[in-house]
Specification:
By secondary structure, this protein is α+β, with helices and mostly antiparallel strands. It has one helix and five strands, in the order βββαββ. The N and C termini lie far apart (32 Å).
């Protein structure tokens, strides 16, 4: 029987009250409690890639990461649409 590996992440986006300022984000890996701040989504994906193979390259996932075949642009958006 195969073992299910779960990696969960929390992404938080913030913007100062002055709307001219850019959005900033924090991504947290729930299982390890590690987090990383980012201003570009590629930085968040790089952090996630340490735990899960988000681009289909099994050589980049660390910590026993699980392969995800979807490319970032193919993942379901926040509104639930592909």
């Amino acid at each position: 029987m195969s073992e299910t590996v779960i990696s969960s992440f929390i992404l938080r986006f913030t913007q100062e009250s002055d709307a001219d300022l850019p959005w900033r984000g924090v991504v947290r890996h729930v299982q390890s409690d590690e987090e990383s701040r980012f201003t570009r989504i590629e930085e968040a994906l790089r952090f996630i890639g340490r735990f899960v193979d988000v681009v289909g390259d099994t050589t980049t996932a660390g910590h026993g990461g699980q392969r995800m075949d979807a490319r970032p642009h193919e993942m379901i958006g926040l509104d639930g649409e592909e």
